[in-house]
Structure formats: structure tokens, C-alpha cells
Design a protein that fits this description.
The complex is a heterodimer of chains A (108) and B (148).
Chain A: E1 6-9, E2 13-14, E3 18-26, E4 48-55, E5 58-65, E6 74-81, E7 85-93, E8 98-107
Parallel strand pairs in A: 2-8
Antiparallel strand pairs in A: 1-3, 3-6, 4-5, 4-7, 7-8
Chain B: H1 5-14, H2 29-40, E1 45-46, E2 50-53, E3 57-60, E4 64-70, E5 80-86, E6 94-100, E7 107-113, E8 119-127, E9 132-143
Parallel strand pairs in B: 1-9, 3-9
Antiparallel strand pairs in B: 2-4, 4-7, 5-6, 5-8, 8-9
């Protein structure tokens, strides 16, 4: 599989106490383990099972994903920002691979 | 009196896990009922407060948008811990569990799920005060999104 490419969208600046929306997307086939290939053999499961978002080291939101999550999983959520800082996003694959990205926000 | 099976089933579900008693014809009823019972953990779910927004008709079961939200102040003492999303007719009924913190600011999330067939989606929210909220919505699926 090609490397999973994450994409994250959130405002670059916000006011103290604002609740901002964060939209994330990662390219991943989310192979459910239910599908059969052309030879009739079950295609083994391979999904991202955990998504986590932290702000300045504190957990904001996380999601446990199961095979019913669509391919190229989209996940949006909110965060209340009180100070400038860095969001860290992590997607953990069944095989233990963790894909990470960060985003900076300036809070005035 | 005069209640249809549908209404009594809903009432039973509200009383917590009693859905079991009305086991519908679905093949994996046991799996989804077990999941709901596990999440409720003996608590009685309220049918208000949790918004489960799904399309009534999904042409493509591979990508069905879901919006979930609970009106909550999201303070350190009063917040939504988690929302669980269940598609009872899918081979693996539990779609996802979304976990919030007071730093979430708002207990709302959007994602996209696969649906194997037409079914009634169930969402369950767990609050910090141990309250449990439940919501259901039917999605008619034209082309299934699992297997194949």
C-alpha cells in the first residue's frame, strides 16, 4: 500500500476561547476483512483502528474505528482553544504503523 | 394499547437492552444487541439530546455520511465522554466510538460509514454524569457497501 497521506484543515488564527472545527482526511483503503478477491479468497483486514488528536500535549478527541468506517476515512470534530499551540494528529494502523501530522494555531 | 410492534420495540429499547426480547429477523442481531447491552451496562438510555443525522436514502452504501451531536456545555464537570455508532445489519455492527474531552468544546463529529444494507442506525452517547442517550434513524441503502 502507498503511504497513507493525511490532510488536516483548521483555522490558522482564532480568538481565545473559540471553538474551532477541525476536518481530517487520510488516504487508506480500510480493507474490511469481509471482501473476497477474484479467486474467492478473503482479503485480510487492514484498517486504521485509532485516530487521536491532541493540543499542546492534551487529548482533545479520539475515535476507535472498525471495518464499517469508509475508505479514506474522514473525521471532523471540534476543539476549544485558549492559547496558541500545536495540534498533533495520529492515525494508528492494524499493523502498528502510526501516521502523524501537526498543525499550528495562533490564538489572540 | 393499540401500539404497533414498532412502537413497543422502541419503548423496550429505551428501557435498556430489552431490544433482545424483540429479536428482529436480522442475522447478526445477537452481535449488535450484545454491543448495545455492553455500552448501556445496565443503565437506562434517554431518547432525547442526541442528534443522529444520516441520509434517509443512501445510493452508495460504501460512503454514507453521519453527523452526531449532543448539546452539552462540555465543561470539566459536565461533558460527553463518548458517542458510539452502531449499524446492526453490518457484519461488524460497531462502526466507531468517538471519545470527547472538555477540550473538545463541542460534542459533535462527522464521518462516513459503510452500510451493508438498509437498516436502522443506532447511536449511544455516554455523559460524564453517567447518563446515556440513544438515537435511531433508518437509512435505505440502494447498493450495499460490504463484501462483494
Amino acid at each position: 500500500m502507498a503511504t497513507a497521506t493525511p490532510r488536516v484543515r483548521l483555522p490558522a488564527i482564532a480568538k481565545k476561547g473559540d471553538i474551532i472545527e477541525i476536518k481530517t482526511l487520510i488516504s487508506h483503503e480500510m480493507e474490511s476483512g469481509q471482501r473476497k478477491d477474484s479467486a474467492g479468497a478473503l482479503v485480510p483486514r487492514k484498517i486504521i483502528k485509532l485516530f487521536e488528536a491532541q493540543f499542546n500535549g492534551h487529548p482533545v478527541f479520539s475515535a476507535d474505528w472498525n471495518p464499517s468506517v469508509s475508505a479514506n476515512p474522514y473525521q471532523s470534530f471540534f476543539a476549544k482553544v485558549e492559547e496558541s499551540g500545536i495540534f498533533e494528529f495520529a492515525w494508528t494502523d492494524d499493523d502498528g504503523t502510526v501516521t502523524k501530522t501537526t498543525a499550528k494555531i495562533t490564538v489572540t | 394499547m393499540g401500539e404497533t410492534g414498532q412502537i413497543s420495540r422502541r419503548n423496550l429499547l429505551v428501557t435498556g437492552g430489552a431490544l433482545l426480547a424483540f429479536g428482529p429477523t436480522r442475522a447478526d442481531a445477537a452481535a449488535s444487541d450484545a454491543e448495545i447491552t455492553r455500552i448501556l451496562a445496565g443503565r437506562t438510555a434517554k431518547v432525547t439530546g442526541l442528534t443522529l443525522d444520516v441520509p434517509s436514502i443512501a445510493e452508495n452504501g460504501l460512503v454514507v455520511p453521519v453527523n452526531l451531536s449532543v448539546a452539552s456545555p462540555m465543561t470539566a464537570t459536565d461533558y460527553v465522554r463518548a458517542i458510539h455508532l452502531i449499524a446492526p445489519e453490518n457484519p461488524i455492527p460497531l462502526v466507531a466510538s468517538f471519545r470527547f474531552t472538555p477540550a473538545s468544546g463541542r460534542a459533535a463529529t462527522s464521518m462516513r460509514m459503510r452500510l451493508a444494507q438498509t437498516q436502522t442506525i443506532v447511536a449511544i452517547a455516554e455523559l460524564s454524569n453517567n447518563d446515556v442517550l440513544i438515537a435511531q434513524a433508518e437509512v435505505k441503502v440502494t447498493i450495499g457497501g460490504c463484501g462483494g
